[in-house]
Amino acid sequence: MKYLLTVIFASTFYLSLLAQNEGKAKGLETINRDVIQAQLEFLASDWMEGREAGTAGNYLAGDYLASLFKLYTLKPNGDEQTLTPNRYQKLLGLKDEKLTSYFQEFSAIEVQPSEAQAISLVRKNETVGFQYKTDFDVSFVSQSRTVKAPLVFVGYGIENKELGWNDFSGVDVKGKIVVRLAGLPGDGAPDSKAARIVADKELKISSREKNTTAFDKGAVAILEYNPQKDEQHDWRANPAFRYNEAMLESDTKPDSFYDKKLRLPSDKHTLPVISISKQMLEEILGEKGPTLEETVAKAAKLKTNSQAVEGELEIDVNAQTKVLGLRNILARIEGENPNKIMVVGAHYDHLGKHNGHIWNGADDNGSGVVAVTTIAKAFVESGVKPQCTIIFALWDGEERGLLGSRHFIETFDEMDQVMLYLNFDMVGRNGSPDAPGNKVAMIYTEAATSLKETSKEHIENFELDLDVNFSAVEKPVGGSDNSGFAKRDIPIFWFHTGGHTDYHQASDHVELINWQKLEDIIKLSYLDMWEFANNPELIKE
Ligand SMILES: [Zn+2]
Protein backbone atom coordinates (compact mmCIF):
# COMPACT_ATOMS: atom_id res chain seq x y z
CA MET A 1 0.00 0.00 0.00
CA LYS A 2 2.71 2.39 0.99
CA TYR A 3 4.50 1.56 -2.25
CA LEU A 4 1.29 2.14 -4.25
CA LEU A 5 0.79 5.52 -2.59
CA THR A 6 4.34 6.46 -3.35
CA VAL A 7 3.84 5.45 -6.96
CA ILE A 8 0.58 7.39 -7.18
CA PHE A 9 2.17 10.38 -5.52
CA ALA A 10 5.19 10.18 -7.77
CA SER A 11 3.07 9.85 -10.91
CA THR A 12 0.84 12.76 -9.93
CA PHE A 13 3.91 14.86 -9.28
CA TYR A 14 5.38 13.81 -12.60
CA LEU A 15 2.15 14.50 -14.50
CA SER A 16 1.73 17.94 -13.03
CA LEU A 17 5.31 18.63 -13.83
CA LEU A 18 4.71 17.53 -17.39
CA ALA A 19 1.73 19.77 -17.62
CA GLN A 20 3.74 22.67 -16.23
CA ASN A 21 6.81 22.21 -18.16
CA GLU A 22 6.75 19.39 -20.63
CA GLY A 23 9.79 20.66 -22.52
CA LYS A 24 11.96 20.91 -19.45
CA ALA A 25 11.20 17.30 -18.52
CA LYS A 26 11.63 16.09 -22.07
CA GLY A 27 15.11 17.54 -22.19
CA LEU A 28 15.96 16.08 -18.80
CA GLU A 29 15.07 12.58 -19.99
CA THR A 30 17.77 12.74 -22.64
CA ILE A 31 20.49 13.03 -19.98
CA ASN A 32 21.63 9.57 -19.00
CA ARG A 33 24.75 7.61 -18.32
CA ASP A 34 24.99 6.08 -21.80
CA VAL A 35 25.00 9.46 -23.51
CA ILE A 36 27.60 10.82 -21.13
CA GLN A 37 29.82 7.75 -21.19
CA ALA A 38 29.73 7.42 -24.98
CA GLN A 39 31.13 10.92 -25.41
CA LEU A 40 33.61 10.92 -22.55
CA GLU A 41 35.17 7.54 -23.29
CA PHE A 42 36.16 8.69 -26.76
CA LEU A 43 37.20 12.17 -25.69
CA ALA A 44 39.46 10.81 -22.94
CA SER A 45 40.86 8.00 -25.08
CA ASP A 46 44.51 7.76 -26.12
CA TRP A 47 43.53 8.77 -29.68
CA MET A 48 43.18 12.35 -28.48
CA GLU A 49 46.76 12.29 -27.17
CA GLY A 50 45.91 14.45 -24.19
CA ARG A 51 44.35 17.29 -26.24
CA GLU A 52 47.20 19.72 -25.67
CA ALA A 53 46.49 23.13 -27.23
CA GLY A 54 47.94 23.40 -30.73
CA THR A 55 48.65 19.68 -31.18
CA ALA A 56 47.07 17.15 -33.55
CA GLY A 57 45.19 15.48 -30.65
CA ASN A 58 43.67 18.80 -29.71
CA TYR A 59 42.51 19.33 -33.31
CA LEU A 60 41.05 15.82 -33.43
CA ALA A 61 39.14 16.44 -30.21
CA GLY A 62 37.94 19.76 -31.59
CA ASP A 63 36.66 18.18 -34.80
CA TYR A 64 34.90 15.45 -32.82
CA LEU A 65 33.18 18.02 -30.60
CA ALA A 66 32.14 20.21 -33.53
CA SER A 67 30.65 17.13 -35.18
CA LEU A 68 28.67 16.43 -31.99
CA PHE A 69 27.26 19.97 -32.09
CA LYS A 70 26.31 19.37 -35.72
CA LEU A 71 24.76 16.00 -34.89
CA TYR A 72 22.72 17.64 -32.13
CA THR A 73 21.58 20.22 -34.73
CA LEU A 74 22.97 23.27 -32.94
CA LYS A 75 23.67 26.41 -34.92
CA PRO A 76 27.38 27.22 -35.43
CA ASN A 77 28.58 30.41 -33.76
CA GLY A 78 32.26 30.55 -34.75
CA ASP A 79 34.08 32.39 -37.53
CA GLU A 80 32.41 33.64 -40.67
CA GLN A 81 34.01 32.00 -43.69
CA THR A 82 33.70 32.61 -47.40
CA LEU A 83 33.96 29.57 -49.63
CA THR A 84 35.25 30.71 -52.99
CA PRO A 85 34.63 28.31 -55.90
CA ASN A 86 37.56 27.41 -58.13
CA ARG A 87 37.80 28.44 -61.78
CA TYR A 88 35.85 25.45 -63.09
CA GLN A 89 33.12 25.68 -60.48
CA LYS A 90 32.77 29.35 -61.42
CA LEU A 91 32.20 28.30 -65.04
CA LEU A 92 29.32 26.18 -63.77
CA GLY A 93 27.85 29.27 -62.13
CA LEU A 94 28.88 28.68 -58.51
CA LYS A 95 29.22 31.83 -56.44
CA ASP A 96 30.99 32.77 -53.19
CA GLU A 97 29.23 31.13 -50.28
CA LYS A 98 29.20 32.57 -46.76
CA LEU A 99 29.30 30.04 -43.97
CA THR A 100 29.50 30.19 -40.21
CA SER A 101 31.85 27.66 -38.69
CA TYR A 102 31.73 25.98 -35.29
CA PHE A 103 35.37 27.05 -34.88
CA GLN A 104 36.63 30.35 -33.63
CA GLU A 105 40.29 30.40 -34.63
CA PHE A 106 42.94 32.46 -32.88
CA SER A 107 46.70 32.65 -32.47
CA ALA A 108 48.67 32.06 -29.32
CA ILE A 109 52.38 32.53 -28.71
CA GLU A 110 54.11 29.62 -27.06
CA VAL A 111 57.05 30.62 -24.90
CA GLN A 112 59.52 28.18 -23.45
CA PRO A 113 62.76 28.94 -21.62
CA SER A 114 65.65 27.83 -23.81
CA GLU A 115 68.65 25.78 -22.69
CA ALA A 116 70.93 28.79 -22.36
CA GLN A 117 70.26 30.97 -19.32
CA ALA A 118 72.88 32.96 -17.47
CA ILE A 119 73.00 34.85 -14.20
CA SER A 120 76.05 36.35 -12.55
CA LEU A 121 76.67 38.47 -9.50
CA VAL A 122 79.11 41.35 -9.74
CA ARG A 123 80.36 42.52 -6.36
CA LYS A 124 83.47 44.60 -5.81
CA ASN A 125 86.12 42.98 -8.00
CA GLU A 126 84.49 39.62 -8.14
CA THR A 127 82.02 37.99 -10.53
CA VAL A 128 80.17 34.86 -9.44
CA GLY A 129 78.39 32.80 -12.08
CA PHE A 130 75.30 30.72 -11.32
CA GLN A 131 74.25 27.62 -13.19
CA TYR A 132 70.88 27.03 -14.81
CA LYS A 133 68.95 24.10 -13.28
CA THR A 134 71.58 23.80 -10.53
CA ASP A 135 71.35 27.17 -8.83
CA PHE A 136 68.29 28.62 -10.49
CA ASP A 137 65.35 27.92 -12.74
CA VAL A 138 63.38 30.30 -14.91
CA SER A 139 59.80 30.24 -13.59
CA PHE A 140 58.52 32.77 -16.01
CA VAL A 141 59.82 34.40 -19.15
CA SER A 142 57.81 35.95 -21.96
CA GLN A 143 60.71 36.96 -24.21
CA SER A 144 64.53 36.95 -24.25
CA ARG A 145 65.83 39.76 -22.11
CA THR A 146 69.05 41.01 -20.52
CA VAL A 147 68.92 42.90 -17.25
CA LYS A 148 71.74 44.35 -15.19
CA ALA A 149 70.64 46.05 -11.99
CA PRO A 150 71.29 46.49 -8.26
CA LEU A 151 69.64 44.15 -5.78
CA VAL A 152 67.08 44.69 -3.03
CA PHE A 153 65.97 42.08 -0.53
CA VAL A 154 62.23 42.51 0.20
CA GLY A 155 61.48 39.73 2.70
CA TYR A 156 58.24 38.08 1.56
CA GLY A 157 57.55 40.76 -1.05
CA ILE A 158 54.15 41.58 0.40
CA GLU A 159 52.18 44.75 0.81
CA ASN A 160 48.99 43.84 2.66
CA LYS A 161 46.69 46.04 4.73
CA GLU A 162 44.84 43.19 6.46
CA LEU A 163 48.09 41.93 7.85
CA GLY A 164 49.36 45.47 8.41
CA TRP A 165 52.45 44.50 6.53
CA ASN A 166 54.64 46.25 3.95
CA ASP A 167 57.92 44.74 2.80
CA PHE A 168 58.44 47.70 0.47
CA SER A 169 58.46 50.48 3.05
CA GLY A 170 61.87 52.05 3.41
CA VAL A 171 63.36 50.44 0.29
CA ASP A 172 63.36 51.62 -3.30
CA VAL A 173 62.89 48.82 -5.82
CA LYS A 174 62.53 50.97 -8.93
CA GLY A 175 64.86 49.71 -11.66
CA LYS A 176 66.16 47.01 -9.32
CA ILE A 177 66.07 43.24 -9.05
CA VAL A 178 64.08 42.11 -6.02
CA VAL A 179 65.01 39.04 -4.01
CA ARG A 180 62.23 37.56 -1.91
CA LEU A 181 61.03 34.50 -0.03
CA ALA A 182 58.01 32.47 -1.07
CA GLY A 183 55.20 32.12 1.47
CA LEU A 184 53.93 34.40 4.19
CA PRO A 185 55.23 35.91 7.43
CA GLY A 186 54.85 33.36 10.20
CA ASP A 187 55.73 30.39 7.96
CA GLY A 188 57.95 28.05 9.95
CA ALA A 189 56.80 29.58 13.25
CA PRO A 190 53.29 28.21 13.76
CA ASP A 191 52.88 29.67 17.29
CA SER A 192 53.90 33.18 16.29
CA LYS A 193 51.71 36.26 16.19
CA ALA A 194 52.13 36.49 12.41
CA ALA A 195 51.05 32.89 11.86
CA ARG A 196 47.97 33.45 14.01
CA ILE A 197 46.88 36.52 12.07
CA VAL A 198 47.45 34.76 8.76
CA ALA A 199 45.35 31.80 9.95
CA ASP A 200 42.59 33.97 11.48
CA LYS A 201 42.18 36.04 8.36
CA GLU A 202 42.61 33.00 6.09
CA LEU A 203 45.16 35.07 4.21
CA LYS A 204 46.39 33.76 0.88
CA ILE A 205 48.70 35.74 -1.35
CA SER A 206 49.73 34.06 -4.58
CA SER A 207 53.13 34.44 -6.25
CA ARG A 208 51.31 36.07 -9.12
CA GLU A 209 49.93 38.78 -6.83
CA LYS A 210 53.38 39.28 -5.33
CA ASN A 211 54.85 39.62 -8.81
CA THR A 212 52.30 42.27 -9.72
CA THR A 213 53.12 44.25 -6.57
CA ALA A 214 56.86 44.16 -7.30
CA PHE A 215 56.54 45.05 -11.00
CA ASP A 216 54.03 47.82 -10.25
CA LYS A 217 56.68 49.36 -8.01
CA GLY A 218 59.19 49.28 -10.84
CA ALA A 219 61.20 46.11 -10.16
CA VAL A 220 62.89 44.74 -13.32
CA ALA A 221 63.17 41.08 -12.31
CA ILE A 222 62.26 38.82 -9.39
CA LEU A 223 64.33 36.16 -7.65
CA GLU A 224 62.45 33.91 -5.27
CA TYR A 225 63.64 31.33 -2.80
CA ASN A 226 61.06 28.95 -1.38
CA PRO A 227 62.03 27.67 2.09
CA GLN A 228 59.24 25.05 1.92
CA LYS A 229 60.63 23.46 -1.19
CA ASP A 230 63.82 21.66 -2.03
CA GLU A 231 64.39 23.23 -5.45
CA GLN A 232 67.43 21.14 -6.23
CA HIS A 233 65.44 17.99 -5.62
CA ASP A 234 63.08 19.07 -8.39
CA TRP A 235 65.89 19.94 -10.78
CA ARG A 236 67.69 16.62 -10.53
CA ALA A 237 68.16 15.06 -13.93
CA ASN A 238 67.55 11.48 -12.83
CA PRO A 239 64.90 11.58 -10.12
CA ALA A 240 62.18 9.52 -11.53
CA PHE A 241 63.47 5.97 -11.56
CA ARG A 242 60.14 4.37 -11.21
CA TYR A 243 60.50 3.40 -7.56
CA ASN A 244 60.32 7.07 -6.64
CA GLU A 245 57.34 8.13 -8.67
CA ALA A 246 53.86 7.49 -7.40
CA MET A 247 52.18 8.61 -10.58
CA LEU A 248 54.38 7.65 -13.44
CA GLU A 249 55.94 4.36 -14.34
CA SER A 250 58.84 5.58 -16.33
CA ASP A 251 62.58 5.79 -16.03
CA THR A 252 62.62 9.40 -17.14
CA LYS A 253 60.90 12.39 -15.67
CA PRO A 254 58.12 13.78 -17.81
CA ASP A 255 59.60 16.83 -19.50
CA SER A 256 58.54 19.88 -17.70
CA PHE A 257 55.42 20.81 -19.60
CA TYR A 258 54.74 23.49 -17.03
CA ASP A 259 57.73 25.34 -18.51
CA LYS A 260 55.76 25.97 -21.66
CA LYS A 261 53.53 28.99 -21.45
CA LEU A 262 51.10 30.36 -23.95
CA ARG A 263 50.02 33.94 -24.24
CA LEU A 264 47.74 35.90 -26.50
CA PRO A 265 49.44 38.30 -28.92
CA SER A 266 47.49 41.10 -27.20
CA ASP A 267 49.09 40.35 -23.79
CA LYS A 268 51.77 42.65 -22.48
CA HIS A 269 55.26 41.23 -22.11
CA THR A 270 56.08 40.44 -18.54
CA LEU A 271 59.37 40.50 -16.70
CA PRO A 272 61.41 37.45 -15.70
CA VAL A 273 60.70 35.54 -12.51
CA ILE A 274 63.46 33.21 -11.35
CA SER A 275 63.46 30.62 -8.59
CA ILE A 276 66.74 30.11 -6.80
CA SER A 277 68.37 27.60 -4.48
CA LYS A 278 69.26 28.28 -0.86
CA GLN A 279 72.96 28.42 -1.76
CA MET A 280 72.31 31.04 -4.41
CA LEU A 281 70.21 33.08 -1.99
CA GLU A 282 73.02 33.03 0.58
CA GLU A 283 75.62 33.95 -2.03
CA ILE A 284 73.54 36.91 -3.19
CA LEU A 285 72.72 38.21 0.29
CA GLY A 286 76.43 38.01 1.14
CA GLU A 287 78.12 37.95 4.50
CA LYS A 288 76.94 41.39 5.50
CA GLY A 289 73.42 41.14 4.16
CA PRO A 290 70.20 39.91 5.78
CA THR A 291 69.90 36.21 6.50
CA LEU A 292 67.07 33.81 5.97
CA GLU A 293 66.95 32.88 9.66
CA GLU A 294 66.78 36.45 10.93
CA THR A 295 64.09 37.29 8.35
CA VAL A 296 61.91 34.37 9.46
CA ALA A 297 62.44 35.21 13.14
CA LYS A 298 61.66 38.90 12.67
CA ALA A 299 58.59 38.12 10.56
CA ALA A 300 57.20 35.92 13.32
CA LYS A 301 57.20 39.08 15.48
CA LEU A 302 55.63 41.09 12.66
CA LYS A 303 58.81 42.93 11.70
CA THR A 304 60.01 43.29 8.14
CA ASN A 305 63.65 42.86 7.15
CA SER A 306 63.93 44.59 3.76
CA GLN A 307 67.22 46.17 2.74
CA ALA A 308 69.42 46.91 -0.23
CA VAL A 309 72.02 44.27 -1.03
CA GLU A 310 75.54 45.07 -2.14
CA GLY A 311 76.44 44.43 -5.78
CA GLU A 312 74.66 44.02 -9.09
CA LEU A 313 73.14 41.06 -10.81
CA GLU A 314 73.35 40.39 -14.51
CA ILE A 315 70.51 38.28 -15.84
CA ASP A 316 70.41 36.96 -19.38
CA VAL A 317 67.21 34.97 -19.87
CA ASN A 318 66.36 33.40 -23.18
CA ALA A 319 63.14 32.09 -24.59
CA GLN A 320 62.10 30.15 -27.64
CA THR A 321 58.81 31.19 -29.13
CA LYS A 322 56.44 29.95 -31.79
CA VAL A 323 52.98 30.90 -32.88
CA LEU A 324 50.25 28.26 -32.57
CA GLY A 325 46.76 28.09 -34.02
CA LEU A 326 44.08 27.38 -31.43
CA ARG A 327 40.34 26.93 -31.76
CA ASN A 328 37.32 27.51 -29.55
CA ILE A 329 34.22 25.55 -30.53
CA LEU A 330 31.03 27.58 -30.38
CA ALA A 331 27.39 26.73 -30.99
CA ARG A 332 24.19 28.62 -30.34
CA ILE A 333 20.51 28.18 -29.64
CA GLU A 334 18.64 31.29 -30.64
CA GLY A 335 16.22 32.56 -28.00
CA GLU A 336 12.95 34.48 -28.32
CA ASN A 337 14.88 37.50 -27.08
CA PRO A 338 18.26 37.46 -28.85
CA ASN A 339 19.43 40.44 -26.79
CA LYS A 340 19.72 38.31 -23.70
CA ILE A 341 22.55 35.82 -23.85
CA MET A 342 23.73 33.08 -21.51
CA VAL A 343 26.95 31.16 -22.01
CA VAL A 344 27.67 27.58 -20.92
CA GLY A 345 31.35 26.63 -21.21
CA ALA A 346 34.15 24.21 -20.40
CA HIS A 347 37.74 23.88 -21.60
CA TYR A 348 38.54 20.90 -23.82
CA ASP A 349 42.32 21.21 -23.91
CA HIS A 350 44.57 19.34 -21.49
CA LEU A 351 48.26 18.59 -20.97
CA GLY A 352 49.11 16.38 -23.95
CA LYS A 353 51.63 13.55 -24.11
CA HIS A 354 55.19 13.43 -22.86
CA ASN A 355 57.82 10.72 -22.79
CA GLY A 356 55.38 8.10 -24.01
CA HIS A 357 52.67 8.89 -21.46
CA ILE A 358 49.34 10.44 -22.28
CA TRP A 359 47.55 12.86 -20.01
CA ASN A 360 43.99 11.76 -20.91
CA GLY A 361 42.33 14.36 -18.72
CA ALA A 362 39.09 12.42 -18.23
CA ASP A 363 38.08 14.53 -15.26
CA ASP A 364 40.12 17.61 -16.29
CA ASN A 365 38.19 18.49 -18.25
CA GLY A 366 36.56 15.77 -20.36
CA SER A 367 33.87 15.65 -17.66
CA GLY A 368 33.06 19.35 -18.08
CA VAL A 369 33.06 19.13 -21.86
CA VAL A 370 30.46 16.37 -21.94
CA ALA A 371 28.39 18.37 -19.46
CA VAL A 372 28.25 21.20 -22.02
CA THR A 373 27.51 18.97 -25.03
CA THR A 374 24.91 16.94 -23.12
CA ILE A 375 23.11 20.05 -21.89
CA ALA A 376 23.14 21.45 -25.43
CA LYS A 377 21.59 18.22 -26.70
CA ALA A 378 18.94 18.29 -23.96
CA PHE A 379 17.94 21.86 -24.84
CA VAL A 380 17.50 20.92 -28.50
CA GLU A 381 15.52 17.79 -27.70
CA SER A 382 13.22 19.66 -25.34
CA GLY A 383 11.75 21.14 -28.52
CA VAL A 384 11.23 24.51 -26.85
CA LYS A 385 12.77 27.78 -27.94
CA PRO A 386 14.12 29.39 -24.76
CA GLN A 387 13.59 33.04 -23.87
CA CYS A 388 17.33 33.78 -23.92
CA THR A 389 19.92 32.88 -26.51
CA ILE A 390 22.34 30.27 -25.19
CA ILE A 391 25.91 29.91 -26.41
CA PHE A 392 27.65 26.61 -25.83
CA ALA A 393 31.40 27.11 -25.72
CA LEU A 394 34.29 24.66 -25.58
CA TRP A 395 37.45 26.58 -24.79
CA ASP A 396 40.95 25.86 -25.99
CA GLY A 397 44.18 26.82 -24.19
CA GLU A 398 42.78 26.95 -20.64
CA GLU A 399 45.61 24.95 -19.12
CA ARG A 400 48.14 27.50 -20.37
CA GLY A 401 46.41 30.66 -19.25
CA LEU A 402 42.64 30.65 -19.95
CA LEU A 403 43.42 31.72 -23.52
CA GLY A 404 40.27 30.54 -25.30
CA SER A 405 37.78 32.18 -22.97
CA ARG A 406 39.89 35.34 -22.83
CA HIS A 407 40.01 35.54 -26.62
CA PHE A 408 36.25 35.06 -26.82
CA ILE A 409 35.60 37.79 -24.26
CA GLU A 410 37.96 40.19 -26.06
CA THR A 411 36.34 39.65 -29.46
CA PHE A 412 32.67 38.69 -28.99
CA ASP A 413 30.44 41.45 -30.46
CA GLU A 414 27.53 40.72 -28.15
CA MET A 415 29.50 40.67 -24.90
CA ASP A 416 27.33 43.43 -23.40
CA GLN A 417 24.28 41.20 -23.72
CA VAL A 418 25.80 38.29 -21.79
CA MET A 419 23.98 38.04 -18.47
CA LEU A 420 25.13 34.70 -17.07
CA TYR A 421 28.02 32.28 -17.45
CA LEU A 422 27.95 28.64 -16.32
CA ASN A 423 31.37 27.01 -16.17
CA PHE A 424 32.45 23.41 -15.76
CA ASP A 425 35.93 22.34 -14.76
CA MET A 426 36.38 18.85 -13.26
CA VAL A 427 32.98 17.47 -12.32
CA GLY A 428 33.56 13.72 -12.47
CA ARG A 429 35.46 12.60 -9.38
CA ASN A 430 35.47 12.40 -5.60
CA GLY A 431 37.88 14.70 -3.78
CA SER A 432 39.51 11.77 -2.02
CA PRO A 433 38.88 8.02 -2.26
CA ASP A 434 37.07 7.93 1.09
CA ALA A 435 35.02 11.11 0.54
CA PRO A 436 31.27 10.56 0.12
CA GLY A 437 30.52 10.05 -3.56
CA ASN A 438 27.94 12.82 -3.85
CA LYS A 439 29.92 15.85 -2.73
CA VAL A 440 30.31 18.79 -5.11
CA ALA A 441 31.15 22.47 -4.71
CA MET A 442 29.22 25.21 -6.44
CA ILE A 443 31.14 28.47 -6.64
CA TYR A 444 28.89 31.40 -7.53
CA THR A 445 28.59 35.17 -7.62
CA GLU A 446 27.37 36.13 -4.16
CA ALA A 447 24.96 38.84 -5.30
CA ALA A 448 23.08 36.46 -7.63
CA THR A 449 21.31 34.60 -4.82
CA SER A 450 18.88 32.85 -7.19
CA LEU A 451 21.78 30.72 -8.45
CA LYS A 452 21.88 28.97 -5.08
CA GLU A 453 18.13 28.96 -4.41
CA THR A 454 17.21 27.54 -7.81
CA SER A 455 19.86 24.81 -7.51
CA LYS A 456 18.58 23.87 -4.05
CA GLU A 457 15.00 23.61 -5.31
CA HIS A 458 16.03 21.43 -8.23
CA ILE A 459 18.04 19.06 -6.04
CA GLU A 460 15.01 18.59 -3.81
CA ASN A 461 12.27 18.44 -6.44
CA PHE A 462 14.13 16.11 -8.76
CA GLU A 463 15.66 13.99 -5.98
CA LEU A 464 19.21 14.43 -7.21
CA ASP A 465 21.76 12.69 -5.05
CA LEU A 466 24.07 15.66 -4.60
CA ASP A 467 25.51 17.18 -1.46
CA VAL A 468 26.39 20.67 -2.68
CA ASN A 469 28.75 22.94 -0.81
CA PHE A 470 27.59 26.39 -1.95
CA SER A 471 30.46 28.83 -1.97
CA ALA A 472 29.46 32.47 -2.45
CA VAL A 473 32.21 34.72 -3.74
CA GLU A 474 31.87 38.47 -4.24
CA LYS A 475 33.76 38.37 -7.53
CA PRO A 476 34.73 34.80 -8.45
CA VAL A 477 37.66 35.51 -10.75
CA GLY A 478 39.75 32.50 -9.73
CA GLY A 479 40.11 28.94 -10.85
CA SER A 480 39.05 28.58 -14.44
CA ASP A 481 37.39 30.12 -17.50
CA ASN A 482 34.85 31.90 -15.29
CA SER A 483 37.61 34.41 -14.56
CA GLY A 484 37.13 36.73 -17.55
CA PHE A 485 33.35 36.73 -17.20
CA ALA A 486 33.51 37.52 -13.48
CA LYS A 487 35.99 40.34 -14.17
CA ARG A 488 33.31 41.86 -16.40
CA ASP A 489 30.83 41.64 -13.53
CA ILE A 490 28.79 38.95 -15.24
CA PRO A 491 27.25 36.57 -12.66
CA ILE A 492 28.85 33.16 -12.91
CA PHE A 493 28.46 29.79 -11.30
CA TRP A 494 30.47 26.64 -11.65
CA PHE A 495 30.61 23.13 -10.32
CA HIS A 496 33.76 21.41 -9.15
CA THR A 497 34.14 17.99 -7.58
CA GLY A 498 37.55 18.79 -6.12
CA GLY A 499 41.21 18.05 -6.61
CA HIS A 500 42.47 14.48 -6.29
CA THR A 501 45.73 12.57 -6.56
CA ASP A 502 45.27 12.10 -10.33
CA TYR A 503 44.88 15.84 -10.91
CA HIS A 504 47.24 16.87 -13.74
CA GLN A 505 48.70 13.36 -13.77
CA ALA A 506 48.83 10.82 -16.56
CA SER A 507 46.50 8.70 -14.40
CA ASP A 508 43.43 10.94 -14.86
CA HIS A 509 41.66 8.05 -16.64
CA VAL A 510 38.06 7.57 -17.65
CA GLU A 511 37.71 4.40 -15.53
CA LEU A 512 37.91 6.53 -12.42
CA ILE A 513 34.88 8.68 -13.26
CA ASN A 514 31.95 8.64 -10.83
CA TRP A 515 29.24 8.34 -13.49
CA GLN A 516 26.26 8.74 -11.18
CA LYS A 517 27.58 11.98 -9.77
CA LEU A 518 28.52 13.35 -13.18
CA GLU A 519 25.03 12.54 -14.46
CA ASP A 520 23.39 14.28 -11.51
CA ILE A 521 25.56 17.38 -11.87
CA ILE A 522 24.68 17.59 -15.56
CA LYS A 523 20.99 17.19 -14.76
CA LEU A 524 21.12 19.89 -12.11
CA SER A 525 23.00 22.25 -14.43
CA TYR A 526 20.52 21.65 -17.24
CA LEU A 527 17.55 22.29 -14.94
CA ASP A 528 19.17 25.47 -13.61
CA MET A 529 20.01 26.75 -17.07
CA TRP A 530 16.50 25.95 -18.26
CA GLU A 531 15.07 28.02 -15.46
CA PHE A 532 17.40 30.98 -16.03
CA ALA A 533 17.15 30.90 -19.83
CA ASN A 534 13.36 30.97 -19.59
CA ASN A 535 13.10 33.37 -16.63
CA PRO A 536 16.04 35.72 -17.16
CA GLU A 537 14.60 38.13 -14.57
CA LEU A 538 15.85 35.63 -11.96
CA ILE A 539 19.40 36.69 -12.74
CA LYS A 540 18.88 40.42 -12.32
CA GLU A 541 21.02 41.56 -9.45
ZN1 LIG B 1 40.80 22.15 -16.00
TrEMBL record:
Residues making up the signal peptide according to the UniProt record: 1-19
UniProt entry keywords in alphabetical sequence: Carboxypeptidase, Hydrolase, Protease, Signal
Hydrolase keyword on record: yes
Domain Peptidase M28: 328-523
Record GO biological process: proteolysis
Molecular function as annotated in GO: carboxypeptidase activity; metalloexopeptidase activity
Protein name: Zn-dependent M28 family amino/carboxypeptidase
Biological source species: Sunxiuqinia elliptica
